[in-house]
């Protein structure tokens, strides 16, 4: 007990010196001051996420969930200090959260999040993972906003039927506190994927009879299963998820590859590792693992096999058009168990555009002109897919037919 008090006193004294001098946290074998290193928020259409980053694992006193005008979180750790740039008050002022305030004293830290009327919250902690620190996360939602979003998706589905258009949902990978892979010079996957997805949507929306929408149109976190469920609610015809590849060794990987879902495991170990990394986005974002409750019973039915067959054709067509750009090598069509591809309602693929940790390819990925050209190539690929399946753009959705020569077999 005495040694624990002594250690706590030493940590408190060091933290006070760091706070007074504005020094950086100690490195090497020395003790690391306990601090709140960042307070951040991301606003989505129906919810706002507030995240507190810590230099060490802490014990938080807070309710798990509830509703009301605010939530108060206490961290009873003597000597905890605010890191550089952590404000006393963070003004959010979207439709869900008004503000976040922080207070520190000898007893610890106290955080207060003030909500807009009609809000409810879910609060939890996330253990350190990959390059992410220990975090306290508070997801705040407005029931009215959720109802409005459900109505919006229903309206999209109704307009699709009325106007006889084809609907393509584009999914920019990662977002919010899930940055995805990082490239040389601080390039973040979440920003590249959003830019490419926006360029792809812009290209498709220029085509009469097509409509393209995004699962996220700004920098916020969306759970993997919610991404394809958004597309399902809108009765999408296609689903294209955009990502950047990465390898453990800098510069060791290169090229573009397109995945569709595998029911029997990945094409090889490297593809399994990649799927594991992409599927870990939920863990990084604080979403607990989920059982395959909503798809297990239909994995092998006719609808699933038809979706996989069409997904394979979509993957091949998209890669053909991207590979025409000789600047990025084709790595081929692959299969793996990506969680975001597990809908049976439409063909879905995941495009790994290029390697963000490859010094040459990251220069392309961060170039707005290359992003625009990649969006154009994917647009051409989508149009070629519709043509190959006998779909006339602008025709009623039930005019689609099975591609000529298709046997129904699915490659695993």
Stretches where pLDDT is under 50 for at least 5 consecutive residues are: 1-29, 291-300, 396-412
SSE-based structural type: alpha/beta
With strands numbered from the N-terminus, the spatial order across the biggest sheet is 3-9-10-2-1-5
Secondary structure tally, helices: 9
Number of domains: 2
CATH homolog superfamily of the largest domain: Zn-dependent exopeptidases
Stated plainly, the CATH topology of the largest domain is called Aminopeptidase
CATH architecture of the largest domain: 3-Layer(aba) Sandwich
SSE arrangement, N to C: HEEEEEEEEEEHEHEHEEHHHEEHH
Notes on the protein architecture:
With 412 residues, this protein is α/β, with parallel strands linked by helices. It folds into two domains: 2-141, Immunoglobulin-like (Sandwich), CATH 2.60.40; 164-399, Zn-dependent exopeptidases (Aminopeptidase), CATH 3.40.630.40. 32% of the residues lie in helices and 26% in strands. It has nine helices and 16 strands. It has helices at residues 2-21, 143-163, 189-204, 224-233, 269-279, 281-284, 302-323, 359-365, 368-388; strands at 35-43, 47-54, 65-67, 70-75, 81-82, 89-91, 97-105, 108-115, 119-126, 134-142, 166-172, 210-214, 238-245, 256-261, 330-336, 348-355. A six-stranded mixed β-sheet has the order 3-9-10-2-1-5. Strand 9 and strand 10 form a beta hairpin. Helix 3 packs across helix 9 and helix 7 packs across helix 9. The protein is globular and about 70 Å long. The termini are far apart. The model is unreliable at 1-29, 291-300 and 396-412 (pLDDT under 50).
């Amino acid at each position: 007990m005495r040694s624990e008090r002594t250690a706590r006193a030493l940590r408190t004294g060091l933290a006070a010196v760091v706070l007074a001098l504005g020094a950086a946290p100690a490195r090497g074998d020395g003790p690391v001051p306990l601090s709140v290193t960042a307070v951040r928020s991301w606003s989505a259409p129906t919810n706002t996420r507030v995240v507190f980053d810590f230099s060490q694992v802490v014990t938080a006193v807070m309710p798990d969930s509830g509703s009301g005008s605010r939530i108060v979180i206490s961290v009873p750790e003597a000597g905890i200090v605010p890191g550089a740039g952590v404000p006393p008050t963070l003004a959010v002022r979207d439709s869900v959260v008004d503000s976040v305030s922080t207070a520190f004293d000898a007893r610890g830290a106290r955080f207060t999040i003030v909500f807009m009327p009609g809000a409810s919250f879910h609060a939890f902690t996330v253990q350190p993972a990959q390059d992410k620190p220990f975090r306290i996360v508070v997801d705040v939602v407005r029931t009215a906003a959720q109802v409005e979003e459900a109505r919006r998706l229903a309206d999209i589905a109704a307009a699709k039927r009325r106007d006889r258009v084809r609907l393509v949902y584009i999914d920019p990978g990662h977002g919010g506190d899930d940055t995805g892979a990082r490239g040389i010079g601080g390039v973040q996957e979440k920003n590249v994927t959003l830019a490419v997805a926006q360029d792809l949507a812009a290209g498709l929306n220029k085509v009469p009879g097509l409509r393209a929408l995004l699962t996220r149109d700004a920098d916020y976190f969306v759970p993997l299963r919610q991404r394809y469920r958004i597309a399902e609610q809108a009765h999408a015809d296609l689903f294209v998820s955009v990502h950047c590849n990465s390898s453990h060794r800098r510069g060791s990987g290169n090229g573009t590859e397109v995945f569709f879902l595998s029911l029997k495991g990945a094409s090889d170990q490297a593809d399994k590792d990649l799927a594991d990394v992409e599927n870990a986005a939920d863990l990084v974002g604080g979403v607990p693992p989920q059982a395959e409750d909503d798809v297990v019973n239909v994995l092998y039915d006719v609808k699933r096999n038809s979706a996989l067959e069409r997904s394979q054709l979509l993957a091949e067509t998209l890669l053909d058009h991207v590979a025409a750009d000789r600047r990025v090598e084709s790595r081929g069509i692959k299969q793996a168990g990506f969680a975001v591809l597990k809908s049976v309602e439409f063909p879905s693929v995941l495009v790994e555009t290029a390697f963000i940790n490859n010094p040459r390819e990251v220069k392309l990925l961060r170039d707005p002109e290359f992003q625009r050209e990649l969006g154009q190539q994917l647009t051409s690929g989508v149009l070629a897919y519709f043509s190959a399946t006998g779909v006339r753009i602008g025709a009623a959705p039930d005019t689609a037919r099975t591609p000529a020569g298709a046997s129904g077999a699915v490659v695993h």
